């Protein structure tokens, strides 16, 4: 049985069976991870489709190019960028600024509200969005500083600064 890196290399050579195996092996995990970021099943389905289309087209560029050097890290980076693109498209289509658009709470926000106490939830809600995004990526998703930087499209130093500011704000609030 091949690992994901080998499957991506085979996909780069046009191997459809390897692509199907890669999809079967990684799509459930990727869908769950996307649903942590977005509660809209239609957007998640679109992003999954766009991600695997990008994988088929760009598998030749892999060669350990992922944030953590793994194929699943590479897949997540592609999917995360596609998700951001989907949010931007939706905002443009609605012709309403993203901040003003009423959105259903993300699935992870709903789960967190059941898990964390009222004080922690209030403290999280009071954080600036960019600080909350860093906490979400690093604590909830378990991403590294490098992965968080790639996901949010900011330098690693900015991620570290935001993480520190978020921790200080949470400490002060609690």
Automatic annotation (TrEMBL):
PANTHER family per record: RNA POLYMERASE ECF-TYPE SIGMA FACTO, RNA POLYMERASE SIGMA-70 FACTOR ECF SUBFAMILY
Keyword Transcription regulation recorded: yes
Keywords: Sigma factor, Transcription, Transcription regulation
Family label: Belongs to the sigma-70 factor family. ECF subfamily.
The organism of origin for this protein: Actinophytocola algeriensis
UniProt feature coiled coil, ranges: none
One Gene Ontology term from the biological process aspect of the record: DNA-templated transcription initiation
Gene Ontology MF terms in the entry: DNA binding; sigma factor activity
Residue ranges of domain RNA polymerase sigma factor 70 region 4 type in the record: 121-170
Protein name: RNA polymerase sigma-70 factor (ECF subfamily)
RNA polymerase sigma-70 region domain mapped to chain residues: 22-92
Record-linked InterPro entries: RNA_pol_sigma-70-like, RNA_pol_sigma-70_dom, RNA_pol_sigma70_r2, RNA_pol_sigma70_r4_t2, RNA_pol_sigma_r2, RNA_pol_sigma_r3/r4-like, WH-like_DNA-bd_sf
């Amino acid at each position: 049985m091949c690992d994901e890196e080998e499957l991506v290399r085979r996909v780069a050579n046009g191997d459809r069976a390897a692509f199907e195996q890669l999809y079967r092996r990684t799509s459930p995990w990727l869908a769950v991870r996307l649903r942590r970021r977005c509660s809209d099943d239609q957007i998640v389905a679109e992003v999954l489709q766009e991600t695997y289309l990008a994988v088929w087209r760009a598998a030749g560029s892999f060669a350990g190019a992922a944030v953590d050097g793994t194929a699943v890290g590479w897949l997540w980076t592609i999917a995360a960028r596609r998700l951001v693109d989907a949010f931007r498209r939706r905002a443009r289509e609605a012709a309403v600024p993203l901040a003003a658009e009423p959105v259903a709470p993300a699935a992870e926000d709903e789960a967190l509200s059941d898990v964390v106490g009222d004080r922690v939830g209030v403290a999280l809600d009071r954080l600036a969005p960019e600080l909350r995004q860093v906490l979400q990526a690093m604590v909830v998703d378990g991403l590294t500083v490098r992965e968080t930087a790639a996901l949010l499209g900011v330098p690693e130093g900015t991620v570290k600064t935001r993480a520190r500011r978020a921790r200080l704000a949470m400490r002060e609030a609690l």
